[in-house]
Design brief:
The protein is 79% helix and 0% strand. With 432 residues, the chain is an all-alpha fold. It has a single domain (7-427), classed as Proton glutamate symport protein (Orthogonal Bundle). Helix 2 (31-66) runs parallel beside helix 9. The protein starts with 6 loop residues before the first helix and ends in a 5-residue tail after the last helix. The structure holds aspartic acid.
Amino acid sequence: MRLKLPLYQKILLGMLLGIVYGWLSIQQDWQFFTFNYIQPLGDVFMRLLQLIAVPLVIASLVTGLAQMKDIASLGRLGVRTVILFLTTTFLAVAIGLGIANLIQPGNQLPLSIRQELQASYTSEEAGNGQLSNKQKQVEAQPALQFITDSVPKNIFGAASDNGNMLQVITFALLLGLAMVMVPAEQGKPLLNFFESLNAVVLKMVDLIMSVAPIGVAALMASVLSNLAAKSGGALDLLLALGSYALCVIGGIFILLFVMNPLVLFLFAKKFRFEDLKRFYAAVFPAQLLAFSTSSSAATLPLTFERVEQHLKVRPRVAGFVLPLGATINMDGTSLYQGVAAVFIAQAFGLDLSFSDQLTLLLTSVLASIGSAAVPGAGMVMLVIVLKSIGMDAAGIALIIAPDRLLDMFRTTANVTSDCMVSYIVNSHETGD
Ligand code: ASP
């Protein structure tokens, strides 16, 4: 029997089922079964989404760019997009810093827990032991490393890792640009190829989306059960981190329901209240998928579908803004990095001066741009933010426990912002 429900209802149903099952699995101690037989279903779904990301980015960017009338219109589109990305990211960090300074979650940590944490993590060795290799690598790099990293040495190398999406975008941008610049008849065969690839890839997305409800259910179930397993002994720590987690989640809600509407009203052409309802209805399924996968890149296939089909954004705009946005526009991540840095500083009893806060503003923007669109990337890049105010990267150990949960919220805000920027940029475009 086929369930005739719209996609978002099916995904929502899958999510609820996953949550109920995850909760039961914790209560009934089904962790073994969940790990062995449920988690693989979620992993397969996640892999399918990741599998499609690189071909989707290349095909959509190249066909999108090739539809540009001239280089000047591409330049206008690029400038508008980047200005909006930066504006929303700066605003997001400012909101995060405002909340963290107002609520002071780090000062609310019970003294005993703070002392315990400080004792175990101020010793550099103990703390550094908690850092992943990736975090140690980031620690040794310049803050602008992401600019160097955005240029691939080899296209196959770039396309072999979804964490290198920015490199794939650079290649696709150059390719698309060159295709606009060569005489039309010379570019035509390549354009035909990419148009055909684009159509086929979109069909693959449809096929993958047909199993989204099952994938989302399995992902939610395994995330919950893993969270419970990991925090088993550290439940008091998780609770102590409650006000920090609430600051991040509260901030994300402000982004979603205050900042985003304001930005839409301010910057989108002829934006009315009905458009806001239409906007939320259109992006809701992508938000659900972002929440379940914690990856903007994995959500990209659905983001495309929602933005092009339901927000009626032109393919050439979506093809440019969405892949770039998924990779560099991360409002939720930047807000989280601002809050997390202030929280860690407070927990370690450090007073942050005004210039420290300005440094945090700047480096959180940079670190979010440099974060890959995959689960947990924002926490890795937090190293840069902490280093910028002279803090030990080992402080990250304080906030590891609730990170996966917060990643779900920040990815939702990241994807929503990409949809928003593509909508605004599209509203300023003329012609088809
Ligand atoms: N998971 C986020 C994303 O894909 C990045 C992060 O870890 O903040 O958008």
